[in-house]
């Protein structure tokens, strides 16, 4: 797939170079009045379009939607999407680290936006499936890319937020999305993000251990009888393999419950980070990130759209083949 490899290369170069491209920031602007009335101040700043411009965001959203469609209807292609997104995330995380160590200060809002991409986005790809279309090696790659982002999030909300690399818009609040508009300066909001960051880091570490140790045990041809019931229960619930005819396998009611939960999970993973990113940009009056006229914005958006079209085409081809066989 030459087009896929070329797309991966473009995504990596674009995201990695974003941290090194000089950018012009627009601090809070006050109206030029002799009275200096505080009510005349204009909040907001010019965002980094090289990291989260409209074209890049659209490309990411197209990837998330493609991943959800693949997980449901076109599992053969989900591995390619997963690998592409992991490479992109690695580049974004490197850019975030460079921004953290850069003398040019950044805004905590920008870090929050990148956290939506780095931490929330991968859950559109990560699932319990392990087998024909998913290997332990791929799970390891996901862990290596996503888990450091959760560790960074822990550092940011506990320590980094008070560091000198951040700047705040003068006389303006900074806001984020946690099911509603919240102030990023609120103690309760900071405590919430601290708790979520630690919880995610622990959960990801636990499930990585699960894939590393319990799944290989499950694949042994000679399972120990003491471990087998536990392993069967874990795999029947977390993994999508149905294991009909085995003791302890899922019932029809279990299947219906898991299907409903899976749909809710998929919708949440897709909608929540998109709302978080777009509302955060809007509430903080971030400018310069709503155009795709430049080549740097056009390429990732077209690449993401092309991937979505390819997924839809594969699904339609599969449906057509299914009906031909049925008839």
Automatic annotation (TrEMBL):
<feature type="transmembrane region" description="Helical">
    <location>
        <begin position="86"/>
        <end position="103"/>
    </location>
</feature>
<keyword id="KW-1133">Transmembrane helix</keyword>
<feature type="transmembrane region" description="Helical">
    <location>
        <begin position="264"/>
        <end position="283"/>
    </location>
</feature>
<feature type="transmembrane region" description="Helical">
    <location>
        <begin position="192"/>
        <end position="214"/>
    </location>
</feature>
<keyword id="KW-0732">Signal</keyword>
<feature type="transmembrane region" description="Helical">
    <location>
        <begin position="109"/>
        <end position="126"/>
    </location>
</feature>
<keyword id="KW-0472">Membrane</keyword>
<keyword id="KW-0812">Transmembrane</keyword>
<feature type="transmembrane region" description="Helical">
    <location>
        <begin position="138"/>
        <end position="158"/>
    </location>
</feature>
<protein>
    <submittedName>
        <fullName>Uncharacterized protein</fullName>
    </submittedName>
</protein>
<feature type="signal peptide">
    <location>
        <begin position="1"/>
        <end position="18"/>
    </location>
</feature>
<feature type="transmembrane region" description="Helical">
    <location>
        <begin position="295"/>
        <end position="316"/>
    </location>
</feature>
